[in-house]
């Protein structure tokens, strides 16, 4: 046991002391925080004004001035033609685009709606196109209603928005719940687990290949058994992963909440919301930040964190052991590719199925794969925020633990033989034979 602890210490300290580890540990939370705060930060940036010249023959836009970002300039329909409009755009570099709204032989809303044209030097922003399309649709709808003898104001007053509440009655105390936060926590947890398991598992494989290529392993196994070396290496890298993840979580949360409290007064300012170009009707990100405490009430955070550590640890050990066996069987990372793909296919498949969790976390496919040890770390974590029966969670954990122990033993058998094999590319048949070699 002392030798395993010594190897764990060596693997851990040799990695956390690297400049690359320190750099990634500091830069990672900054990047994650920027990603989470990007929508809010974008709202605070000054918007560039875009001038659009409009030839509105049916006067459909009613001289609408636009927004803080879009400024409409109107050409006289009696003196300008569509060719004049295009030439105006060519001659004036300050114009962003030109909009042509024809009236046809008669004022026909259907004709107008299918013949509106944007002229531009290059592509039109999707945001600008959406703004103009939505405004024209509203105007044309109002005109159609007038033709039918219906007052558009009556229709607008009759529109009613419905706010649906979801009450969970599966527990003793009825609680209000929302799928959005659960989906975010589940998806993020699943993706992070996939990322960490694959990255740190590959780190173990590269370490084994490096020691084998440099012949360092021959010196090491003269003092420790191959299985002790394998186990110490896997657990040492696991501690590195948990350390880095813990630092990332703490620093990211500090950055996000710190910047959020500084930005919230500005984000909730009506002038800031209005200055979003008239294209953002509400400040969704600010509302999400304000309701952050409700997220915690809907999701069992201690359970999620505890399960995350468990599934990361045993999911990583499972794949780390398999990849360590692959590393011991080859002489270079290039040779390892033929073995890495079969090992990583279940993990990749779990990411593909992860998208199914959004729509139906209790579907048969998702439930079954959340029990399978090779896919359960990602999919069970994605299901967990939506509510999982205790027996399901315990069964999934038991299968993962049992499978991890079994494959660590299998990988140890391959590792003890493979680390001393040089100059030969093994086949799957040979790997099978290595399992039964006697020491």
What does this structure look like?
It contains 18 helices and 6 strands. By secondary structure, it is an alpha/beta fold. It has a 4-stranded mixed beta sheet, with helices on one face. Helix 13 runs parallel beside helix 17 (390-418). The longest helix has 42 residues, at 226-267.
Low-confidence stretches: 272-293
Mean pLDDT: 77
For the report, how would you describe the main beta sheet? Answer: 4 strands, mixed
- Count of spatially separate domains: 2
Number of strands: 6
Separation, N- and C-terminal Cα atoms: 20 Å
Blueprint (SSEs and pairs):
Elements: H1 2-16, H2 19-44, E1 50-56, E2 70-74, H3 82-91, E3 95-101, H4 109-113, E4 117-120, H5 126-147, H6 152-158, E5 166-168, E6 175-177, H7 179-213, H8 216-220, H9 226-267, H10 270-274, H11 284-290, H12 292-298, H13 301-329, H14 333-359, H15 364-369, H16 376-383, H17 390-418, H18 428-434
Structure in a nutshell:
By secondary structure, this protein is α/β, with parallel strands linked by helices. Helices cover 67% and strands 7% of the residues. Helix 7 (179-213) packs antiparallel against helix 16 (376-383).
């Amino acid at each position: 046991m002392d030798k395993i602890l010594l190897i764990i210490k060596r693997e851990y300290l040799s990695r956390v002391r690297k400049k690359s580890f320190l750099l990634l540990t500091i830069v990672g939370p900054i990047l994650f925080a920027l990603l989470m705060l990007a929508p809010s930060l974008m709202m605070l940036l000054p918007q560039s004004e875009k001038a659009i010249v409009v030839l509105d023959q049916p006067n459909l836009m009613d001289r609408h001035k636009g927004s803080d970002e879009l400024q409409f300039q109107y050409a006289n329909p009696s003196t300008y033609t569509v060719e004049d409009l295009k030439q105006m755009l060519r001659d004036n570099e300050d114009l962003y685009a030109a909009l042509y709204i024809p009236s046809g032989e008669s004022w026909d809303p259907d004709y107008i709606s299918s013949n509106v044209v944007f002229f531009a030097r290059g592509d039109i922003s999707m945001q600008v196109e959406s703004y103009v399309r939505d405004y024209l649709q509203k105007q044309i709808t109002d005109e159609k209603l007038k033709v039918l003898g219906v007052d558009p104001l009556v229709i607008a007053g009759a529109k009613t928005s419905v706010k649906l509440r979801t009450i969970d009655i599966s527990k003793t105390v009825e609680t209000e719940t929302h799928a959005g936060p659960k989906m975010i926590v589940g998806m993020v947890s699943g993706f992070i687990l996939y990322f960490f398991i694959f990255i740190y598992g590959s780190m173990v494989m590269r370490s084994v290949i490096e020691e084998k290529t440099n012949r360092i392993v021959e010196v090491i196994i003269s003092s420790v058994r191959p299985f002790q070396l394998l186990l110490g290496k896997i657990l040492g890298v696991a501690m590195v992963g948990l350390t880095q993840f813990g630092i990332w979580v703490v620093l990211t949360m500090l950055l996000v909440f710190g910047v959020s409290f500084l930005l919230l007064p500005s984000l909730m300012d009506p002038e800031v919301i209005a200055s979003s170009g008239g294209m953002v009707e509400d400040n969704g990100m600010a509302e999400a930040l304000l309701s952050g405490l409700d997220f915690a009430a809907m999701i069992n955070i201690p359970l999620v964190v505890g399960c995350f550590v468990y599934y990361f640890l045993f999911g990583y050990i499972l794949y780390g052991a398999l990849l360590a066996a692959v590393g011991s069987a080859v002489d270079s990372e290039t040779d390892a590719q033929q073995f890495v793909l079969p090992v990583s296919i279940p993990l990749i498949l779990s990411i593909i199925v992860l998208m199914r969790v959004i729509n139906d976390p209790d579907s048969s496919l998702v439930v079954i794969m959340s029990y399978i040890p090779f896919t359960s770390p990602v999919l069970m974590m994605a299901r967990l925020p939506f509510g999982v029966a205790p027996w399901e969670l315990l069964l999934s954990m038991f299968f993962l633990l049992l499978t991890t122990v079994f494959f660590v033993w299998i990988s140890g058998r391959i590792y003890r033989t493979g680390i001393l094999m040089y100059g030969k590319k093994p086949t799957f048949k040979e790997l099978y034979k290595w399992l039964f070699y006697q020491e």
